[in-house]
Amino acid sequence: MSPLLDSIVQHVRSPKADLEAPFQMLVSMMERDFYLGRILTGRVTSGVIRVGDKVHGLRITDEGVQKIEDGKVVKLMKKKGTSMAVIEAAGAGDIISMAGLSGPAIGHTVANPEVLTALPAVELDPPTISMTFGVNDSPLAGRDGTHVTGAKIGNRLMAEAETNLAINVLPGPLSESYEVQGRGELQLGILIENMRREGFELSVSPPRVMYKTERGERLEPIEEVTVEVDEEHIGFVLETLNNRKGELLDMGPVPGTTGRTRVFMTCPSRGLVGVKGVFNSFTRGTGFMHRAFQAYAKYRGPLGTVRKGVLVSVGRGFITSHALMSLEARGTLFVSPGMETYEGMIVGEHSRDSDLEINPVRTKELTNIRAPGKDENIRLSPPRLMTLEEAIGYVAVDELIEVTPKVIRLRKKYLDANKRKMMKNKIMQ
């Protein structure tokens, strides 16, 4: 690292810090402590701050600069390595954490009382994807997690929204459900994974794109996509993104390489849901894909066929190898013998575009008659076990992801087969 650090010192201009000016700091991080309350972290832009000094919080609104709260610095801390060290004072250029104010948040300014101008905050991209978080109501609910109620899920999401400005939490369409808005399925997937490791059980809807309407025209978020792949994979990339309403902007060889191609495209955010897993699998990890929000543009129409139908269980119990042996020809299985299933759970992908109801808990008939060929060894192909990221990109509109600390399951929104048919007919009408 020494040559890199020496180059930074040599070529990057040193910051201009004014210790004589009044104290100002832009809040860039925020966390909560049970004893100190809200802890604000940021870099001191100007001036000096000491424990006991009076400060206030400011924010920029459409009407101008607005005061949030007056307070006093209770504690000052500074990072030293991986630990926090308590300090008595800090000056311009220092990155510090302070306690004593409960109102200011990320993007707000903390300053001396005589300062009435707020520092400009960094503008964040608007949320483009939303998912509904709710209570896990499957027949296997409550077995793995310790936080299973809607109130605990809501408190955890509100705490996340307080420290993460890129996430918005709103009341959901159903009781004890919450609509979580973010800037991509990866960001929301990280939140779900963190909650899962903390012992939460919940059900999650598939990602939905946040549309806008201006002058009677429907607009959707469009993203810039940059792809670098080997030449042998370029046909797959173009076919996949074109099927998802992508538009090609430019394509050419990567400078300094042999056999590599770079593609620039624009694609709707809804078309990029789940494409990363398919891309990595097909290119065997040799491809590179980068996405960035561009703007809201005119709706590009429905997507092409993204996936096939699913195999839905109609029985409850433990899955048997005897049943799976005859079901392997129907498609790709997501389960293995010994796993527990229930009615409405998705156990595989159908080889056709329609859903198929199957019974994976069927057992061998026990009789006292021995027949040739009845005791042959059953050899099954390894199941396709989905990660959370793959599951988020796979589920359809009428399906949910059941997330527990130990397992991830896919299921239909309505577990009863008759209710699913009734709701499907209702939508078609």
From TrEMBL:
Against InterPro entries, the record matches this protein to: BipA_C, BipA_II, BipA_III, EF-G-like_DII, EFG_III/V, EFG_V-like, Transl_B-barrel_sf, TypA/BipA_C
Where is the Elongation factor G-like domain positioned along the sequence?
A: 22-110
Amino-acid biosynthesis in keyword set: no
Q: Does the keyword Oxidoreductase apply?
A: no
Q: Name one GO cellular component term.
A: cytosol
Give UniProt keywords alphabetically: GTP-binding, Nucleotide-binding
Q: What's the superkingdom here?
A: Eukaryota
Q: Where is the TypA/BipA C-terminal domain?
A: 308-416
- Using the record's annotation, list all stretches that form the Elongation factor EFG domain: 219-301
Q: Name one GO molecular function term.
A: GTPase activity
What single Pfam family name could you report for this chain, choosing any that match?
Answer: EFG_C
Name under which the protein is recorded = Elongation factor EFG domain-containing protein
- Organism, scientific name: Aegilops tauschii subsp. strangulata
